Amino acid sequence: MTTTSLPVVCCAPIAREPIGEQDAAELATLLKAVADPVRLRLLSMIGSHAGGEACVCDLTDAFDLTAPTISHHLKVLRTAGLIDGERRGTWVYYRIIPETVARLGELFTPLATV
Q1: CB-based contact 96:47 (threshold 8 Å)
Q2: Range of the domain at 50
Q3: DSSP label at residue 89
Q4: In whole angstroms, what is the distance from residue 59 CA to residue 42 CA?
């Protein structure tokens, strides 16, 4: 039987050292915001939309939910700092805030060792 050697990786930041109280509270807010399937889909739809931003009019049709419910989910994402929006006429266009989304990814991404 042959064994394949896997690259040596270091622990993800969450496993390297204990998270401080303030960081834990901030990260928990972000995790709670994306822990809902609708919000996770919205975040993905906004981030993958052409030009990196999506009109709320493009988002509502993808769900079997009312416009106020979609607005609530977008507000949760916006309050958490994961997205930002800009009103243009009667529509709001949303875009991801890369630095905030990256904090979530970095939390669990192992770092390669040299």
Answers
A1: yes
A2: 34-104
A3: T
A4: 7
Q: Which of 87, 110, 102, 90 is nearest to 43 (CA)?
A: 102
Residue 47 lies in a domain: yes
- Residue linked to tokens 């991801």: 96
**Which phi and psi angles does 48 have, rounded to 5°?**
-95, 0
Q: List, for residues 69-92, the tens digit of each pLDDT value.
A: 999 999 999 999 999 999 999 999
**Euclidean distance between CA atoms 25 and 94, whole angstroms:** 25
The number of folded domains in the chain is: 1
Task: Determine, yes or no, domain membership for 7.
Answer: no
Q: Where are the beta strands (DSSP E) in 1-114?
A: 53-55, 83-88, 91-96
Residue 107: which pLDDT band, with cuts at 50, 70 and 90? Answer: confident
Residue reference for tokens 């834990």: 24
Residues in the chain: 114
Residue 59 placed within a domain: yes
What is the spatial distance between Cα 65 and Cα 106, in angstroms, rounded to a whole number?
32
Average pLDDT estimate for 26-40: 95
